[in-house]
Amino acid sequence: MQHISRQSSHFILRNCKFIFEWTLSRRWNMNYVQRGFFWIVIYLCLALLLYVRLLKPLVLLRHPYRVERVRKEKGNSWTLVLRPEGHRGFTFKPGQFAWLTIRNSPFALKEHPFSLSSSAMQPQTIHLTIKQLGDFTRRIKDISPGQTAYLDGPYGAFSIDRHPYSDYIFIAGGIGIAPIMCMLRTLADRGDERALLLFYAYVGLIYGLCTSWKIRPMIGRGRPVLSRLTCSPVICQSALINMNTISAGRS
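The structure corresponding to this sequence follows.
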């Protein structure tokens, strides 16, 4: 089931209210088929709200994660390293994302989507690489190891596992490298020998860490190195592009 947010539940409530008021206004003119359809819609909406507001938060509450480390990256970015606590976590495809809840209960429905940047072959440790862009992301650096977090996922169809080919060309800019790093790390863990070409754009050489002689150690630390990976950095001189790089993490 696709992710259902707070806005979606509010939308459902508004439509239930509209359908109910419309039915009351026409209650003497409805036949049995229309009444049956009305009650089916109402029951489905109520079941969906029950799932969003009660059942799903309960499941997340029973599957917490613990913040193991908060690692500083380049370009005003941070990587949260999370470990499942009391459960096995979830399996995911390289390139997918998850919804993060931290400093709040899952019942608060205050969650934020972030790409997974760790290897899909190591689901016991989840990495989320996050750039400071808004009120919530600016507070990522203040998170302390040991804090409890909740992850709802995985979601997304952007994955090499969904689109198998003989070779791959990756194009990324700024924080968009996070799901690409997830894919590259997964391919490295699998010992994949396909040819890979990575184009990575960032502003200024000072932020650039995605060079062919540095990308392999970042991906391959503690795992087989991708011998057929070629990295072509694209340096953007204009600050208007605003695509600062991250170091993509050190495993």
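Residues 6-61 form one domain.
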